[in-house]
Amino acid sequence: MGIDYGTDFFKVALVAAGKPLDIVLNRDYKRKTQSVVVVKGDERFFGVEAVNKQVRLAEYSYPSVKAVLGRLYSDPDTQDYIKRYNPTMVEDPERKTPLFQQDHSTFYSPEELLAMQIQYARETASAEAGRPITSAVIAVPPFFDQFERQAILDAASLVGVRVLSVINDGASVALNYAMDKSFTEPQSILFYDVGAGSTTATLVRFTSDAMAKSTQVGVQSYGFDRTLGGSELDHRIAALLSEEFMRQFKDQVSQHVDDSPRAKTKLLKEANRVKHILSTNVEARSSIESLLDGHDFRTTVTREQLESLTEDLVPRFIQPIDDALARANMTLAEIQSVVFVGGGLRVPFIDRVLREYVGDDKVARNINGDEAAVKGAALHAASMSMQLKAKGISLKDIVPYPVEVVYGETGSDIVSPPLPPTLIFPADADLDSRRAISFRHASDFAVRLRYPADPTLPHTELSQMSITGLTDAAEGYKPEDLGQPLPKVRLSVLVNENGVAQLLKAEAAFNVTNPVPESSSEASNSESSAAEADSSASSESSSSTTSTALVKVPLKITSQALGVPALSADSKSAARKRFAAMDKSDRRRLEHAEAVNNLESYIYFIRDFVEDEVFHPFASPADRDTLASDANAFSEWLEDTGINEETPIYVEKYDQLKKGVDAIKLRHSEHQDRPKVVTQLQKATSEGLSLLERLAKEYTDLELKNARKDMNSLQQAVDKATTWLTDATDQQAKLALTENPVLLTSEMRAHMDTVDKAHKKLAGRKIRKRPSATASETETDATPKDESDDSSSRPVHDEL
């Protein structure tokens, strides 16, 4: 499956054998699900159900947790989230990351809340596929750093989802764009996405190979604004509404409206509604009942007010385009088109500003901007699967941020001269690639991986690695044995498909003169170097002639994460246990809801059923009155008790209604099907008797003796079916249509099955006719010769 996890909504797409790539509908039959989860005790609510409970259960509502993934509690992103949503949040004493507090003993990490939503996505996809779905490609913004990406991976692991790749959503959109296109010439296209929480520009080059029937999608650069999106407009409208409410009711309320979680939630919900109205109208009437302390709030917001509120954002909407072009050393004139995606572009002033900047002739909306990223993610998942064959589209993405190696020694020995940081992955380096650096050093040391200074990132230090084994290896050689005073150290670094940088391998290479012969314990670590030795053979022999060989020694790497710590193994284990309890609660709740819905639906069905004249001949007036009376009684009971009874009570009442309906339906269906099935049974018994009569004439005495058991079985099956059919037919003739039948098609089919099995077993035996010379002669003489027969095709007998 593919998942596009956004600030306000997440979407799921599925690709499976025998199924076309398409969006998965959630339990509300919607194509997207709100990125909010409401958790109260062991109960979890998603989608429309969560939104409906969000105001009443504001303190148990957790929206837009994407904003605090991979962040410390003290980070600006977290503090801004607290200011905007007013959650009850504390600092994790160990990780120093934010924790959402539900009560004095219950806390949730952002990863856990995200995991719940990923689990919901997996369950809906599994229901659609008809089998468990366990792997996914998850689309995230290209500016997600290593800590945010690791949080995504940790969240998925909590619910057993294997992440094939964390893909940049701009690259995912580009994959979707290429699905139904062929590029006769290379094209550079810029995808501009205004989402709920951010704005990105992705510059992509498309090329097609007609011979190979493949398309290459190569990301050239990204530009972005991490905090500029549709939600920024929501919060500014909410602030306007808040200010107006306090102006109207300042002296009549017990607190500021922004200090009430429930009122704050209502304001944000209303602000989003107003924004959508102003997308197509010049003004919007805002109305919130009982916003705070029982006061109803009403006001009007105009499009002019909105544009005035957001006037300072105009340059920020343009900047991602400029950044993407600058990083690729290109201009607007060099790109073929700008493709708009994302719901934020429905806001008129944003659309107008961008069209004026890039030119109407370059603007394109030839993809479904709301679903392009998730469909591209699903396509990428298919291309990574061994079971599915995807269209020939290959992706080359680039690293989210440059990565450099910083040298920091743990002992007194230092690199001489000191080494400056090495930029090992520049901004345009390929994702999922390895690079190596080499330098000379003779003792254990440490290195760090980090992003170069970036004002948009609160944390740039990624990890620190202690490299050991070098000191011991160097001390094993005398200075006169080394061709170089310092060994060469080689470090291999990977930025994997998820955008996570890690040190994979470290080794030291010694140029050794007169190495130990191959028969010694060190020989297995030696390999000849053509560049540094006259003859490799001399290093492999046991002779004592002077030679030089390259001896490689693997070094031990001990890693320590820096910045934002990932979830520990103990934290993951505790979260999984908690999820297991919640899963049981969810199943009970879903079973209860299903039982209630089934009963309600059946009550409405019965009201139509008792009026259906097709069934009137098979239901007495008393039957229909009983059904109608029970349905009305249960309907009144539901209105009085609601949904507060135990699940088995609803199931029992449903079964009671269904039993009465099923009896009437059975009488109707039996009456309709009975004649046909009676004929089929009579035919089966007749064919069985015919077979018995024929075999009695054709079998030899010995064959009759050997077949007696099978013949008796068929005879008994025929007799039993015939006797039963006669008796049941007589009984059925005495019954009215409104009485339960005794001549049942199911029993007739069971008798037919028994007769057929006995028939097939007997008919499958080999038949050898009784020997009779007279009969043979008579048959030979009496049989006329067909002159059209080929006489050469049958044997000729001179005598019988």
UniProtKB/TrEMBL annotation:
Composition bias of kind Basic residues appears in 759-771
Gene3D superfamilies to which the protein is assigned, alphabetical: 1.20.1270.10, 3.30.30.30, 3.30.420.40, Actin, Chain A, domain 4, Substrate Binding Domain Of DNAk, Chain A, domain 1
Looking up Pfam families in the UniProt record yields: HSP70
Select a single GO molecular function from the record's annotations and give it: ATP-dependent protein folding chaperone
Ordered alphabetically, the record's keywords are: ATP-binding, Chaperone, Endoplasmic reticulum, Nucleotide-binding, Stress response
Which InterPro entries does the protein's record reference? ATPase_NBD (IPR043129), HSP70_C_sf (IPR029048), HSP70_peptide-bd_sf (IPR029047), Hsp_70_fam (IPR013126)
Residue numbers spanned by region Disordered: 515-545, 759-800
The protein's name: Heat shock protein 70 family
Query: From which organism does this entry originate?
Result: Dimargaris cristalligena
Q: What is the lineage of its organism?
A: Eukaryota, Fungi, Fungi incertae sedis, Zoopagomycota, Kickxellomycotina
